[in-house]
Specification:
This protein is α/β, with parallel strands linked by helices. The chain has 12 helices and 17 strands.
Length: about 375
């Protein structure tokens, strides 16, 4: 849990996501250090963090990014100032020419997609490096929703289909097996990659190790990661190694500030209804699921004021709990959810017309900078 003693919560409007610049820079410094010490290329995954007004800060440390759609590729080109490393489960004819304009690397999920689109890349001058996503059929991820290697997965090509010789024009391979994982999980994955695809590694120029490398987590063994990467490079000196973490960039760097709107009780269960919604503004909490950390609260303690926290949508299941507080909650109290920047802002929605929280930066100079507020027009124009 982050104890940010500098950020003045009372100065922050509710509801509001707030990125802490000092904490963000600390993560970026570590990621750049790993990149330089291990001699690998680390790029930002937009699917976890696409808060583009923070990209000028990111570019001070990391210049490249990875995209999974035509809009993300355009964002990379226009706001990161560099072409994207792009991967999508399936490209469409309508989007592909645009994706080519914004990409330096394009990874295909299947041989059929590569065969269909590669002629367009050749016709455009063959300036894009093409890759194939492989599926090593191994992952330590326990939640099926986030396991890309589960039996029957649509993501990546298994070894039995790929064969012994890569198609002409394929310059790289890409795998993604991790999710908020450790360097030891990566080490075990690499064993499977070498076992099943080792005969193909000499045929390519680069290997993209995907995301899920949570190197900024407090208990992550960074030295072990660097050792694993250096050893792999020694075994495969022909390869440029690419990593594309997402959560690691914004891990524990910001909060969602909310307020109590009402308190209701039913069968002895007290629920504090907030001006935010789990369904709309913290969807991973319900999808994964996981119980977020609330500043100043704990798991239920007998004898202490205890509440569910309820979202302000009409969905019955838009709540989580329970939490205990040191004193009774009252209308107007601020409720602060920790670690709500990565994989949160990118997944929000406007279901039920619930107002979207503002986006803000708490600067390294200890000032609040509001980047974006949302209005009725944002809700209405989504369906215009």
């Amino acid at each position: 849990m982050i104890e940010n003693k500098i950020m003045d919560i009372e100065k922050i409007p509710s509801p509001c996501y707030v990125l802490d610049e000092a904490l963000f820079r600390k993560n970026l410094e570590l990621i750049r250090s790993v990149k330089e010490r291990a001699g690998v290329n680390i790029i930002l995954a937009f699917k976890a963090f696409a808060l583009w007004k923070a990209f000028p800060i990111v570019r001070e440390y990391i210049p490249y990014s990875t995209a999974s759609s035509v809009f993300e590729a355009r964002l990379a080109y226009e706001e990161m100032g560099s072409p994207a490393h792009t991967y999508s489960p399936a490209y469409t004819d309508a989007d592909f020419s645009t994706i080519m304009n914004y990409s330096s690397h394009i990874t295909f999920n299947s041989l059929s997609q590569f065969q269909h689109f590669y002629p367009q890349i050749l016709a455009a001058g063959n300036k894009i490096s093409c890759g194939l996503r492989i599926n090593p059929e191994y992952s330590d991820v326990e939640t099926d929703l986030y396991n890309p290697c589960a039996p029957g997965s649509r993501l990546g090509i298994v070894a039995s289909i790929l064969g012994d010789v890569l198609p002409q024009g394929v310059e790289g391979l890409h795998f993604h097996t991790l999710c908020e994982s450790s360097s030891y999980d990566l080490e075990k994955t690499l064993e499977q990659v070498e076992k099943k695809f080792g005969h193909l590694l000499s045929q390519v120029k680069w290997l993209n190790m995907g995301g899920g490398h949570l190197m900024t987590r407090k208990d992550y063994n960074v030295e072990h990661l660097i050792g694993v990467l250096k050893a792999f490079k020694e075994r495969h000196p022909n390869l440029e190694i690419i990593m594309e973490p997402g959560s690691a960039f914004a891990w524990q760097t910001g909060i969602l500030v909310s307020s109590v709107v009402d308190i209701v009780e039913n069968h002895g269960i007290k629920t504090a209804i907030l001006d935010v919604s789990f369904t709309c503004h913290m969807p991973d909490c319900l999808e994964m699921p996981y119980k977020p950390v609330v500043r100043g609260a704990t798991d239920p303690v007998p004898g202490k004021p205890t509440y569910r926290l309820g979202g302000n949508s009409c969905l019955s299941g838009d709540y989580m709990g329970d939490w205990s507080f040191d004193k009774e909650l009252k209308v107007g109290d601020k409720i602060v959810f920790e670690d709500m920047i990565h994989y949160t802002i990118v997944k929000t929605n406007m279901f039920n017309g619930i107002p979207h929280p503002a986006l803000a930066l708490w600067t390294k100079d200890e000032e609040l900078k509001i980047w974006r507020t949302y209005t009725y027009d944002d809700y209405k124009n989504r369906m215009a």
